[in-house]
Amino acid sequence: MLRFLTAGESHGPALVAVVEGLPSGLPLTAGYIDRQLKRRQGGYGRGARMKIECDHVKFLSGVRGGMTLGSPLTLYIENKDWSNWSQVMSPDPEARVEEKVITRPRPGHADLTGALKYRHKDIRNVLERSSARETAARVAVGSTARRLLEELGIEITGQVLQIGGINADTGQSDPEELKKILASSQVLCADPGAERQMIEKIDQARQNGDTLGGVFEVRVHGVPAGLGSHVHWDRKIDAGLAAALMSIQSVKGVEVGMGFSGAALPGSLLQDEIFYQKDRGFYRETNRAGGIEGGMTNGEVIILRAAVKPIPTLYQPLQSVDLLDKTISRAAVERADVCAVPAACVIGEAVVAWEIARACLEKFPGDSLAELKENWSCYRTYLRQV
Ligand SMILES: Cc1cc2nc3c(=O)[nH]c(=O)nc-3n(C[C@H](O)[C@H](O)[C@H](O)COP(=O)(O)O)c2cc1C
Ligand SMILES: C=C(O[C@@H]1CC(C(=O)O)=C[C@@H](OP(=O)(O)O)[C@H]1O)C(=O)O
């Protein structure tokens, strides 16, 4: 069984993750994971924190000579900003220096409910962990899954579809070009015209002390039919993927295939008709289902979209109520991003990679990569010949 845990505060010394269940013999380097971490840090609209951090993973266990051992991996990512916070964040009561407590919760963040639920007087005790800084650890974890999937010929791509109401024109759909653009951390989407408008909109929001959200899409290519299951709710792969995407800070909606727009169509226009060819097996000529039917992959490309709400911290803060004296006041301002949709897209790819790898290892158990590949190719042959 593939599983992971992450730990770490945003301004603590580091983020760590323990990954268990990866097969042995998987080629994996820190450099491979670092490329994904770099992509997560990019995208127009990020704040000053991303100039401080330069995320790099260290393996504390589980990898030897560029190969997984089959034992738990411990991934470690240093927070460079820690040096500016070491006294405020110190676990040692003697060494800790008190800062002014944060008492004016930001609408849209975890501040108010986190403080009520955990009985904190200082909102910093909530925001340190609710912060999307944690997603650096999840991208590192997801990258180990992405590496595994590459060995099986499965590829994950992501694309920003909309920012602040401006749609990306995906007319320029050469996948190689798209991959190059997405790999360069500066760029938002495939169409330079749309991208310019998005950048202007982000600049405008920044000037107004406002923030923006948007929509991103993740696709999974090369998945066979039969991952997930129809037999029980928590084995349905669409449920797991939706939960994974919804768990990303600020994601407020997820759709599979045509999703919400499909709800307006008659069944005759929505369902994907079934075809068969010898040596190819069963296939579809349309993919409105987004590659998933009955909680199982159906062999077509998986298409998932996620709606990202605007960043809660506003430099022109909204009304709030002080936790201490209950006076009406403006919400606290922590240094913040204006827009993080491109970063959310990279995180989306990572969490999707994880869920797909989990489903693969469930269907094709293997303690070593070689064993996994044997089971995998046997099943693929069966699907072609059935
Ligand atoms: C990559 C990324 C960066 C984010 N940066 C900020 C930020 O700088 N300031 C902020 O208030 N929220 C930021 N958020 C959003 C908050 O973390 C999120 O809204 C908050 O944790 C509340 O969770 P919810 O929006 O899922 O309800 C970011 C989210 C992501 C995915
Ligand atoms: C640190 C990251 O994002 C952070 C997410 C975040 C939040 O509230 O979610 C608030 C900001 O934190 P800070 O106040 O330290 O600048 C972002 O920078 C990151 O993505 O690595």
From TrEMBL:
Belongs to the chorismate synthase family. FMN binds at R129, S130, S131, Q249, S250, G294, K309, P310, I311, P312, T313, R335. Homotetramer. This reaction introduces a second double bond into the aromatic ring system. NCBIfam families: aroC, PRK05382.1. HAMAP family: Chorismate_synth (MF_00300). One of its GO terms (biological process) is chorismate biosynthetic process. NADP(+) binds at R40, R46. Pathway: Metabolic intermediate biosynthesis; chorismate biosynthesis; chorismate from D-erythrose 4-phosphate and phosphoenolpyruvate: step 7/7. Reduced FMN (FMNH(2)). One of its GO terms (cellular component) is cytosol. Pfam families: Chorismate_synt. It comes from the Bacteria. One of its GO terms (molecular function) is FMN binding. This is Chorismate synthase. Its cofactor is FMNH2. It is an enzyme of class 4 (lyase). Its EC number is 4.2.3.5. Keywords: Amino-acid biosynthesis, Aromatic amino acid biosynthesis, FAD, Flavoprotein, FMN, Lyase, NADP. It catalyses: 5-O-(1-carboxyvinyl)-3-phosphoshikimate = chorismate + phosphate.
